[in-house]
Amino acid sequence: MPVVSVEGRRLALSNLDKVIYPDGTTKGELLHYYATHGSVLLPHLAGRPLSLLRYPDGPEGETFFAKNVPPGTPEWVTTAEVPRSGGGTMRQVVINELAALVWAANLVVEFHTPQWLAGDPGMADRLVFDLDPGEPATVVECCEVARWLRDRLAADGLTAYAKTSGGKGLHLLSPLRPTAPAAETSAYAKALAREAAKALSGLAIATMTRRLRPGKVFIDHSQNAARKTTATPYTLRARATPLVSAPVGWDEIEGCASPEQLIFALPDMPARLDAYGDLMRDLSDPRRARPLPAAG
């Protein structure tokens, strides 16, 4: 088992030649991606309690969520006591440094984080919408809904940033001043999702009713609840191919004419990051945050 030094921390990395994805992507390639591009991931992970979707034998093997601190976690990895949804508290990992990111990636995981910081639990500092297309709708239809939501959020003084879900849809996020409990953020998001569904009748819905979803974009506002998490920007997803939840520019959303234009996999990311840098860097800038408007 090779031992590497990451910013002064010694890490034992296992099974680097193990094939994780059916296309032949290995665990070593996965770790190289996270180690090389940690500077763009860390601002989106730092300070947030981490939920890990583990898929140690690849996306076709067993997958399971882990919220508690995993057994064997090094003592230097930051942890935090956070509220448990059923009452009481639990301890979760917080990834604040590159060595901790590589350690967590060695477990083969998707990174999922809530819309609040561990130091201020339940006080939302982000707003999120998950746009999920029901076949035959695709990400192209999601882009139309995203543009409407961007403009509507702008009318309330909020800036929207977009990323692919790493699946078929899009995620929109807006930075907030953490002055409102998640319940208030959820109420605002629900009201806005319903407004969008009404304005985009025939294209979007704001309810989970399965029979209504074919051909429509479901605007999922539920991830604003304090107990919910969303895939972190730049995380790899446990899909048939090593897809990335990749930030995208509004020009890309405006110009999207086919789903293939907004699909990004691990091999695409180095050139993309070289060309654009972190398209969501302002999401973590507190100067960009705005107060939550009142739910209407």
From TrEMBL:
UniProt KW tRNA processing keyword: no
DNA ligase D polymerase domain mapped to chain residues: 26-279
Its EC number(s): 6.5.1.1
InterPro entries the record matches: LigD_pol_dom (IPR014145), MtLigD_Pol-like (IPR033649), NHEJ_LigD (IPR052171)
Presence of the UniProt keyword Ligase in the record: yes
Enzyme class: ligase
Source organism superkingdom: Bacteria
Pfam families: LigD_Prim-Pol (PF21686)
Gene Ontology MF annotations: DNA ligase (ATP) activity
Keyword field: Ligase
CDD domains assigned: MtLigD_Pol_like (cd04863)
PANTHER family membership: BIFUNCTIONAL NON-HOMOLOGOUS END JOINING PROTEIN LIGD
Name by which UniProt lists this protein: Non-homologous end-joining DNA ligase
Organism: Streptomyces litchfieldiae
